[in-house]
Structure formats: structure tokens, C-alpha cells
Amino acid sequence: MKNLLALIFLALTWGAQAQDDSPKPKTPIGGRPNIPNDLTVEFGWNQFTNRPADLQLKFFGSRSFNAYYQAPIPILGEESGFVFSPGIGLSANKFSFDGDKNLFRNSTLGANSSTLKELKSVYGTSITINTNSFAVNYVEVPLDLQYHFNKQDYSKSFRVSLGAKVGFLYGAHTKISYDSPSTGNVKIKQAENYGLEKVRYGINLKAGSPGFYVWTTYYLNPMWKANRGPFATEATQVNFGLAIGLF
């Protein structure tokens, strides 16, 4: 009986070892699970084009974070290399103005307007500024046309993408924190429209693998409504950076 149990134990052990030694299916680039959709996060920086000289941004303080879920659809045949990729996502943009300035409501124009002022001209010359930023958030719909160079396996292919993007404004606010000899530490978060356009649209370019790529987006319409932003600006936004594909 003991010998029979020993033989059964050896057989089970050998079977388990054989299963462990069997080849396992490989996952795509970087260990990403092979799910037929794309969830990506983009990290980057914001700048203005067509702006007045006084609307200067600090580079490292003006950042962008985007998250998109897209569903690739092969077109022109399964191995054509072309994929249409519509989706939806969120875009969070932070701006840091040069010279310790930020946006305030334009007292002449009233609601849904903004002007750029130095913080010390508003809160006092003796303050020490700790935080000073302007944030704008959008729901965005990206529409990308991709070309994959590896037509047999898109999950392991270098690809380039040209697309369009439409964003819908859902929130904007300034965040200011300073120390004052008279009032101590003060934190102010002011949510307003600031004269921003409610819809923005642009073109975007991407290049890289499904797991990692570089990107840039150029928005075609002004960020603020006509004559409602600082200096009646017609500045447009451009951003660029790196992205990671989660799956």
C-alpha cells in the first residue's frame, strides 16, 4: 500500500513539473495584456502660440495629464496596417504664468471674463507666494488614424498616428497659496469660467509602440472667447509629451 501511494505521489509530482515546463503564451510589448482596446495615459507640457508677450508661461509648471480609452478598428483589411481608433477620455491642464501672475475676473467685463494680474498687486507686497496655478479640465473625444509597420502583429508594431481631437470644458479654477505677516497662511481656490471657450478642437500626432509613444496636439481655435480673455488674446494651446499604454 505504501509503495502504491509513493508511485501515485511521484506521478502527480512529475505531471505538475511537466505542466510548469510547458511553453506559456507570451504577452505583447512590456508585458501588456492582449486586450483589443487601448487605455493610455499621457504626460506632457503646455504652451501658448499666437500670444502677447505678457502671457508667458513657466515651462515646468505648465503640465498636461491625459487619460484615453480607445477602441481600434482595422480598416482596409486585417493586414493593411491601417486602424481607425475612436475613444473618449479626460484632459487635465495646468498653467503657471511667469512673473507670479494669475487670472482674475475682469472688473470691466464682469462674469465669464479674465485679466492677468500680479498676485502682490492684489494681496499685498509683503506676501510670500507658495502656490500659484491655473487649471483647466476637459472631456475629450480623440479620433486617430494609425498605421502599423508590422502588419502581422499590431501589438508588437511601431506605429504612427494622425488624428483629430474635440474637447468639452467641464471645469476651471485658480489655486493660490501665500504667507502674509498679518493673516498667516492663506489658501484660495476660485472656480470660474474665466472667459474660456467651452469647446476646443485640434490635431494630434503620435509615434511609437503600443506600450510607449511620443505625442503632440495643436489646438486650432483660441483658448478664450473673443475679447473675454487676458489682453483680448487669441492665444491657442499646444501640448506635447510622452505616453504609456496600460493595455
CATH topology: Porin
User: What is the count of distinct domains?
Assistant: 1
Ranges where pLDDT stays below 50 over 5 or more residues in a row are 1-35
- Helix fraction, binned, reads 10-25%
* Main sheet characteristics: 8 strands, antiparallel, barrel
The rounded distance between the terminal residues' Cα atoms is 53 Å
Number of helical regions: 2
Proportion of residues in β-strands: over 45%
Helix and strand element order: HEEEEEEHEEEEEE
Structural class: mainly beta
Instruction: Evaluate the radius of gyration.
Output: 26 Å
Order of strands, widest sheet: 1-2-4-7-8-10-11-12
Name of the CATH first level: Mainly Beta
Mean pLDDT: 86
Q: What's the quick description here?
A:
With 247 residues, this protein is mainly β.
Entry keywords:
12 strands, two-stranded antiparallel sheet, about 250 residues, disordered N terminus, mainly beta, eight-stranded antiparallel β-barrel, Porin
Explain what the structure shows.
- The protein is mostly beta strands and 247 residues long.
- The chain has a single domain, classed as Porin (Beta Barrel).
- Helices cover 10% and strands 50% of the residues.
- It contains two helices and twelve strands.
- The chain has helices at residues 2-21, 119-123, and strands at 38-49, 63-70, 73-74, 82-95, 101-104, 115-118, 128-148, 159-180, 184-191, 199-208, 212-219, 236-245.
- Strands 1-2-4-7-8-10-11-12 form an eight-stranded antiparallel barrel. A two-stranded antiparallel sheet has the order 5-6.
- The radius of gyration is 26 Å and the shape is elongated.
